[in-house]
Design brief:
By secondary structure, the chain is of the alpha+beta class. The chain has one domain: Trna Endonuclease, Chain: A, domain 1, CATH 3.40.1350. The chain contains two helices and five strands, in the order H-E-E-E-H-E-E. The chain has helices at about 5-25, 75-90; strands at about 30-35, 40-50, 50-60, 100-110, 115-120. A five-stranded mixed β-sheet has the order 1-2-3-4-5. About 25% of the residues are buried.
């Protein structure tokens, strides 16, 4: 029997796949998915003509709760920023460390049999770590 956590994880994976498709359509090249730096994680790292994008994906089913993007609070932003610094100082990220960095959010909301996506470029600018 599938647990609630399994269902939520599956929904999140589907949302990340949808977000990758959206980013590719906008000209991004996906560099990493589910990048881990210790216990820190970034859902998607992509690059386009504007620079490198660290993307948090929030997926929800339509409900009366707050929109998915509202769940990227200061604590989450700080964790993503620390993970981004780890990436930029790694062998994979070092060649990209001179690129402009963007911290984006993609919200995927399922309602009935369809979904909607919203991209929030430069959703926040990290001023703390």
């Amino acid at each position: 029997m599938e647990s609630k956590d399994d269902h939520r994880r599956d929904l999140g994976r589907i949302g990340e796949e949808i977000a990758c498709d959206l980013l590719r359509k906008m000209g991004h090249r996906i560099l990493e998915r589910n990048y881990r730096n210790g216990h820190l994680e970034i859902d998607i790292i992509s690059i386009d003509a504007d620079g490198i994008h660290f993307v948090e994906v929030k997926t929800r089913r339509d409900s009366i709760q707050a929109p998915p993007q509202y769940n990227v609070d200061r604590a989450k932003q700080s964790r993503i920023t620390k993970a981004a610094l780890g990436f930029l100082h790694s062998g994979k990220g070092l060649p990209l460390s001179s690129y402009e960095c963007h911290f984006d959010v993609v919200a995927v909301t399922f309602s009935g049999g369809s979904y909607s996506t919203e991209w929030f470029p430069q959703a926040y600018i990290p001023i703390y770590v």
